[in-house]
Structure formats: structure tokens, C-alpha cells
Amino acid sequence: MRRWNGWGDESVNVELPESAIEFLKNELGPGNKPQDISLDKALSNVPASRLPEHQLINTDPLERLRHAVGQSFGDWNAIRSGTIPTYPDGVAFPLNEQEVRELLQFAKKIDAHIVPYGGGTSVVGHLAALKGDKPTITVDVSRMNKLLDLNEEGCLAQFQAGIKGPDLEAALQAKGFTLGHFPQSFEYSTLGGWIVTRSAGQQSLKYGRIEQLFVGGEMETPVGSLEISNLPASAAGPNLREFVLGSEGRLGIVTKATVKISPLPEMEQFYSAFFPTPEQGMAAIRKIAQQGIPLSMMRLSLPEETISTLTMAGESKVLTLLDKWLKMNGVNEQKCMLVYGVTGSKKSVKSSLYQAQSIIKKYKGVLVGTKPGQQWVKNRFRSPYLRNSLWQEGYAVDTLETATTWNRVPETIQSIESALREGLQDINENVFAYTHLSHIYPHGSSIYTTYLFRIGDDPDETKRRWEKLKKAASEAIVKNGGTISHQHGVGTDHRPYLENEKTKLGMEMIRSLCHTLDPEQRMNNDKLI
Amino acid sequence: MRRWNGWGDESVNVELPESAIEFLKNELGPGNKPQDISLDKALSNVPASRLPEHQLINTDPLERLRHAVGQSFGDWNAIRSGTIPTYPDGVAFPLNEQEVRELLQFAKKIDAHIVPYGGGTSVVGHLAALKGDKPTITVDVSRMNKLLDLNEEGCLAQFQAGIKGPDLEAALQAKGFTLGHFPQSFEYSTLGGWIVTRSAGQQSLKYGRIEQLFVGGEMETPVGSLEISNLPASAAGPNLREFVLGSEGRLGIVTKATVKISPLPEMEQFYSAFFPTPEQGMAAIRKIAQQGIPLSMMRLSLPEETISTLTMAGESKVLTLLDKWLKMNGVNEQKCMLVYGVTGSKKSVKSSLYQAQSIIKKYKGVLVGTKPGQQWVKNRFRSPYLRNSLWQEGYAVDTLETATTWNRVPETIQSIESALREGLQDINENVFAYTHLSHIYPHGSSIYTTYLFRIGDDPDETKRRWEKLKKAASEAIVKNGGTISHQHGVGTDHRPYLENEKTKLGMEMIRSLCHTLDPEQRMNNDKLI
Fold it and tell me: FAD-binding PCMH-type domain location, by residue (chains A, B) (predicted)?
């Protein structure tokens, strides 16, 4: 059973090693125990539904509680502490596009809002019910999870858009294919959710972002169905796919999607290397991307993340040996760990590896084989579970991300990290922040920063700390001209900053699309724009 | 000096070999000599300008004649025969975005239409002045041709958008870079033109379409400047770049564009192979694309194009030898020529070549070395010149293109070719049509068909023949679910078919963008939508 107030399945606990807790005590001071409420208490907070009866809509308090929030830090703090501001009045689980249409018509008839709900994994506030007098119907598409068509020759698969990552991969892998889209939320997030938030998977270097994988599909909107045909490319005017991508439920509900699939690779391996400095590591990954060497992923941890990753792993003996060896090779305190993957035929993997490693060595990177890479693969979807464990110890963890051109990457990282580290100076609290680059483009990189702080004495204080840090970091991103989101989307958390990225005129263009497809403003209002 | 009524520089004539003329006589009958008018006559047809004076606007009849049409077959027939329906009232050559803004303000003040003009190479009718009482100002951006910024480390270059292909490549190659965008119109077409028509270059397999190369920029619109910042990727809502791409002058005039550039490759080679049948050729290129083998281009000519390419080349002795050799290897009448390119480091070229050739051989392709590939490179921008030569001989030539998913490629080709071949049966005229696939995607392919027919006894009859053929082929494309354009755009020629691709609701979305940025409908009306 999935946790009602945290990440993942209730049976899965990722324990923190002693060394990690010691490390955090040193950096942040002893943790503040959280004041979580019980499920019974949480259920008692759910107000009466304002919806008339409808056969597709469930008004049970447990479903409404489970769908009231996503996984943004604000959501997390609210559900844990019993301070959720709004609840959906009911949750529907349509089986197909006819039922989605029926729900949209019902919403119109009773003048209700609609919140589309995929896997509930949003970390930027996409899922809250609307404030005000009108009721909210949350439309959970998780039962729309079928493989509808597989075109093996043409490498295309059509799915109902509510299918979750593992089910989608299982259906494809059984036939010898993969989508290759592995965001950290993979276990729960859905194909439709990936599309409307412009998701990027961990191996986007090979497979592309969801923008490159989504070929066509159907979206139910308040004014009718929008069909987007499957074309490999088109020069016929603006691309409608691009209106659906990133639409965050504002234009409608994606019901079907056709995606590009790839034959399962002959082989896949993950390797690791350590660079003496961030500058050398960044130069190497930039070169690899610019030369188009076909790796399947690269992730460069900057010094603080490198140290904290190794510390969290908890194997001190191995670490001491590794450190010794790295020092002998000129890699010291400023070490940066690179994990990189090769995926494909034996021949292409060999060639890619040779080319990539030549560049790594040119920039004084020390190759350390496959161990840390294997460790990364093993844990690739486990980081979100650490939030549960850290919370129990009295620490809050959140992540944020941006992307920018190479010339701005170093100062943007520094600016974000400084904003976070100094963000709670007013109350003499430390913030521990570290960064990696994990989506590498020829002309820029994503920047992914994790930050930890002590939770407050009460939920309001915890919220205040998070909001202060989030604001400071977002302003640092905007000031440096980075995108307000490389992979998480906008939601409510990034909404105040969107105009900086899109400009006033750009916002008007987006708004005009919203008005055209949702003239009565029924769809996921307050999110995105 | 550029031809006023045809393709290319007046000094360049691409002669047809005798064998080609013989071939056409056999297929179509003897050519009908055209009834072209003189430049003096053409100038006398240009009506008086309706524009008040403006320092940026030239109302000279020669400039207005030169900017009255593009290179669509309808344009060609009209300018040759003196039947151009509309002329711009003046042509402006702004130097920068301030002057573009000034022109847009002037158009508003005097209630005029604007037609943006890049290289004048449109083959689908983007450039005609508007019918009716309002005057038209054509804004030729060719003087906006500067390199503004080169970020070598980050592989980004910013240009004024009126720069032409050769100037852009010269500026980049002098610094060791290339954009790698080589459409057939390369000699004259502009960066801004590529962007607003979603152009695809001949080596898009390596470098991507212009959609993948265009990072950010500025567009002057009737309601203000739209700025799109340079980001390597963003999940923050709909992507504004995608509103500009394919906008065909309806939303504004692109003044600056930042593009991804690549280091000049260590080496580049073009090879060739012949397959016994189209089925084997298509299976091989599909496999190569699906396995992601990093070639820089593939072009598979189907049997008719293979034969006509070899015949047009005119070296009959070499051909006889080639034919003998191919026959010995099981390649006969149904032979399909593949030209493929490898571009990159020595190491990657070697690896790509090995992988690609393994697949070619698996599908019974016969490798024939580099000769036909070199021939293709030599002639890669020369095909448009053949239109001049063929016209003199009394033959009309036009091309059309689409793209579709692999399962539909064979029947779409057959459907287009049949529509063309049978298109003039009512007057007992033959049409010669042949096809190649030149933009190969894992999930589909472009289809590029060339067709030749005899020009009519008078310009109206020539126009009637072309319109009949164009309509028949466009309907065949639409019936088969292909895009109405893979690389040429929409303009006026494809406009009647756009709704089939975009749906009614999609058209409303595009229209809402036009209304937002151009509320008075001043920008390139009648084109695209």
C-alpha cells in the first residue's frame, strides 16, 4: 500500500547509515522531531463534499485525502501536519476517454473545477483543489493504463495516458522494446504526467526528453477532443504536440499517447570517474556532449555532493581505500564524481566508451570502473524514500533544478547554493546544499541542487523555512537567466517566476491557448499561469 | 546577378545531357517551347505604388517585381508569363530590429499589410502581396546579415536572422564551427526563413532540423517584441520557440536568432550502395535509424529516381559497367540507390561506417564506394537550376514532399505517384514521377517526389496542369494521413489542406496565437491559415 503521507510503498524503508546521521548533526545540528498527525486525525479534517452524486465520482474522505496533495515540500509538510488548505470534493477514476468527456460535461453542468491527476508525484504543486465556492473534481487517470497498439516495425506504441512507468516498461520489454524514460518518480508517475510537465528521464542523453518521445495522441478539452496525428516530422505550421507538452492540465486531460520506442539494447553499463576539480569535470562532459559521443547518461556530482554521496553510502573502509587511490592520482578535496552510462550494441558501446574515456582522461579524470555506477543504478529511484527517513530524524530535504547555457553554469550553481546556505541566517540555522549536473546538452546543462535543513519547532515554522529557501533559490535562478524548471514543471510553486522566463507577451500567448480550449476556466486553474 | 525570373545566378547554367532530353522525349513527348516575356515587358506590368513615401521603403518597379513571387511552380509560371496577380507596393530593407519596428508602426499608421521576405526561395507561396485595397509592404531582411555573438565554449552563435546560408557557414567555418543546416535552397535561403518554415537540411540526421538548432531569439510583432531566451531545455510550460517555428510570417518578423553550432568535423565522407528492391532498401535505412547509428545523411532513391539520376548523369559507359557489376550481385531493374554520409571524428566515422554497412549488407545492398556519393555532394544545391534548363526545353518540373510513419510509407508513395502519373490523362499527357526518401527517422520517413510534365500551349494551360497535379498529389497525401509538408511549409499552396493535419480545434489554437500577436491581421495574411 502506498504511503498516504510520504513517498513510496509503506513496506519500503531506506535506512540512513549512522555515518549519515552523524554527518547531518555536524552540518545542521541535532534534528527536530516532527509533529506528524495520524491518519484518523487527517481524515477527520476532510470537510464534507459539495458534489452532487455521480456514478464515476468517489467522495470517500480517504480518497480525497490521498488526492489532496502531491509531493512538493509544501504538500509534504501540509499532509504530515494536518494543514492541507483545500481538498477535492470528489475523485473520479475514468476508464477511457468517453468517461473523461462525461466528467468534463458534468463539471460544466454543475460549475465545478477539474484537477487532472496522474501519479500524484508532482513536486511543484500541481494537484491542489481550487479555493473558493466552486467544488473541485480530481480526475485520477490511473485506471487508463492499457497498451493500445504496438507497431514493432515502426517503433511506435500507443498507450492510455494513465499508465505508470513500471507497467509501461513491462509491456514494452515483454516485446523486446523500451521507452527509455526513467525520471526519479518512475515508480508512480504516468505517461500523461510526463507529457504535460515536460519530464526528462535519467537517460535522456540517449532516449531524449519526453518532448522527443511523444509523437501524437488525444487530449479531452472542455471544447472537444484534440487529436494529434502521428507524424515523424512536419513543417506545416506550429506543432500542436508542443501545445500539449507542458500544458499542466490547463488545456485538458491527455487520454492517449503514442510514443517512440527503441529495441532493447544489447548491453548497458555504467561507469565512474573522478575529476580533480569541478572545472575539469564540466569541461569533460561538455566536450563529450558537443562531440555527440553517444553515451546514455552522465551525472557529474560537484564536490559537496560527491562527499555526501560517498558518506551516505556508509562503507568507510572502501572509501578510505578509494580516497588513497584518488590522491595518488592527483584527485583531492575538490573531487567530482562522474557516473556515465553506455547503452547499445556491443560494437557501439565499445566505440562510445573509448571516445568518452579518452576525453575524461584528457581532463585528468581518474577512471574507477563500474562500482559507483552500479551503485547509482541500484539506487536510481530510491532517493525520494530518503525524505521519509530524514524526516523521522528531524531533517527536511528538498531539491530544485534549472538549466542554463554553459557560460552561466558555474555562477548559477554558486548563486543558488549561496542563496540556500545563507537563507536561514536570520535564525542561525545552517542549510546544507549540494549539486549535480545530470542532463548534459551541447550548449548547456541542467543544475540539480539538493538542500537539507532542520525542520522547525512547529509546522508553520517548517513551512516558513522552506518558503524562504525556495524563494531565495528561485530568485537566484531567475537573476542568472536560468529556466525556472528543467524537469519538474511550474505548478503553483514556480508560477510567480514564469513571466521572467516567458515575458509578458509570451504569457499572453499561453493565456490565449487556455482561453481557446478552456473558455470557462475550469481546468487546473492557479497552476502554471 | 540573381535571375529575375528563375533560380540562381544568371551566369550559372546547368546543361542537360543529350541522354536526358532523349529520355524525356520518350517519356513525355517533345517539349513545348515556353512563351516567356522580357524583363522590360514584366516591368511595364508593375502597377503604380499606393504607398506614401517612407525613407526605408523602395517603390522602384524592379524591386517590386523581384519581390512579387517566390519559387513555387505557380510563382514561376506567373513571372515567366507576365501573369503575376499582385505586386508589393514597396520593398523595405531594414538593417536592424529598430527599423523593423518602425516599418510595423508605419504599416499600422497607413493600414498596410506586411509580407516578410527572407531569401525569396519559398516553393509553396509565402510571398505574394495581398489582394484588395490595402497596400502591401514587403520587408526584405537580407541586409540583417551579421554574426552578433559567438560563444565558442558553449557552441552557440547569434545572428541577425536575414543572413543567407553561405554567409552564415562562412562566418562559422572561419572559427572552426558549422551549423550543419543545408537545405537545397541553401545558396539563397535565410536563417529566419528556415525558422519560420521549419526547414530540414540534407544532413538533419546528424545536425537535426532547424527546430533542433534554433535556441532563442527575437521576433518583432505588431504588439511588441517577443524575446525567447537561450535555454538548453525547459519544463516551464509550452515552449515559445515552437510558436515561432513554422509561423510563416503570421506572427511577426524574426530579427535575431541564436543557434546551436558544432565543431567542424574531423572528416566527412559520402558512400553509396544499391539494393535489389525498394523493400530491402527501406528495411535497411529504417534499421540504421532505429539503431541510432550516427550517420549524417541517408537518401534512398526508388527505382525510377535511381534510373533517372543515372541517366541524367549521362556517363553511359560507366553506367553499363555499373549495371553489369550490380547484376552479377543480384541487383536488377528494381535497383534503389542509397547515398549515405558519415561525419565526425575518425574513430566515430569508422565505427558508424562499419555498423551501417553491416546492416546494408544484411539487406543485400551492394556497396559501390564513394563515387555516386561524391557526385551527390557536388550537385547537392544544383537541382533547382535544372528547372531553368528543363523549362527552355519545354518541360515543367516540380517537387512535393510529405512524411509519414513507416507502416504507411509504401502505400503513400504509390498513392502520390499514381495521382501524378494519372493526373493529366484527360488530355492524354504523360507525367513522369519519381521519389526518394531523404529524412529518415526511427518511426518514419520523409517522401520526396519529383514530377515532370510538358508545359502547355499557353501559360494558363500550364497553370491548369500544375494545379491539377498539385491537387491530386495533395489529396493523396491527406488521404494517407501524411503531413502536408515535411520541409517546405504551408504558404498558400498547402493552406487548403492544413485543417486535415491540425483538426478544427488545432486551427483555432493557431488562430488564437495570430489574434494575440497580430490583432489587426496585418502580417502575411492568406498564408499558412
Answer: 84-264
Per-residue CA distances from B184 to B10, B128, B165, B208 (Å) = 18, 22, 10, 15
CB pairs under 8 A between A and B: 290
Phi, psi values for residue B398, rounded to 5° = -145, 160
To the nearest 10°, the Cα dihedral for A278, A283, A288, A289?
90
Whether A247 and A274 map to the same domain: the answer is no
Nearest C-alpha neighbor of B69 from the set B496, B491, B472: B491
What is the C-alpha separation between A124 and A43, in angstroms, rounded? 24
Give the pairing of strands A267-275 and A432-437: unpaired
ipTM of predicted assembly, 2 dp: 0.96
Catalytic residue, candidates A87, A448, A451, A497: A448
From A380, A495, A439, select the one nearest A200 (Cα to Cα). A439
Nearest Cβ partner for A485 among B232, B236, B481? B236
Model pLDDT for residues A331-351, shown as the tens digit of each residue:
999 999 999 999 999 988 999
pLDDT tens column, B473-497: 999 999 999 999 999 999 999 999 9
Say what the pTM is. Answer: 0.97
Range(s) of the domain holding residue A282: 269-378
Closest-CA residue to B518 (of B250, B140, B254) = B250
Q: How many domains does chain A have?
A: 3
Report d(CA B157, CA B258) in Å as an integer.
5
CB contact under 8 A, A510 and B237: yes
* Residue matched to cell numbers 537540411: B201
Tell me, yes or no, whether A290 lies in a domain: yes
What one-letter code names the amino acid at A395?
Y
| Residue A446 φ then ψ, to 5° | -75, 160
Chain B hits for A235, CB-CB cut-off 8 Å, are 197-200, 246, 483, 485-490
Is A485 close to B234, i.e. CB distance below 8 A?
yes
DSSP A29: -
Query: Is B297 part of any domain?
Result: yes
Please say which residue of A378, A406, A436 terminates a domain. A378
Q: What percent of chain B has a predicted confidence (pLDDT) above 70?
A: 100
CATH of the domain at B368: 3.30.70.3450
CB B123 within 8 A of CB B106: no
Claim to verify: residue B233 and residue B294 sit in the same structural domain: no
Contact B256, B214 (CB under 8 A): no
- Structure-derived torsion over alpha carbons of residues B299, B304, B309, B312, reported in degrees to the nearest 10: -160
Strand-pair category, A395-405 with A444-454: antiparallel
Give yes or no for residue A316 having a pLDDT over 80: no
Could you tell me if A303 and A259 lie in one domain?
no
Inter-chain CB proximity A153 and B407 less than 8 Å: yes
Nearest chain B residue to A444 by CA: give it: B232
Residue where a domain stops, chosen among A326, A352, A378: A378
Q: Which residue of B has its CA nearest to A259?
A: B443
A139 CA: distance to closest CA in chain B (Å):
21
| Closest chain B CA to residue A199 | B235
- Is residue A348 left, alpha or beta, with left meaning phi > 0 and alpha meaning psi from -120 to 50? alpha
Euclidean distance between CA atoms A173 and A158, whole angstroms? 14
Q: Quick check: B192 and B254 in contact, CB under 8 A?
A: yes
| Residues contributing to the annotated binding site of A for FAD | 116-122, 248-254
What is the side-by-side order of every strand in the sheet holding B147-151?
A: B147-151, B156-160, B253-260, B214-221, B224-228
C-alpha cell at B496: 487548403
Q: Which residues of B are catalytic?
A: 448
B118 assigned binding-site residue: yes
CATH code (residue A405): 3.30.300.330
**Residue A523 forms part of a structural domain:** no
| Residue A448 is a catalytic residue | yes
Q: Is A212 in the same domain as A311? A: no
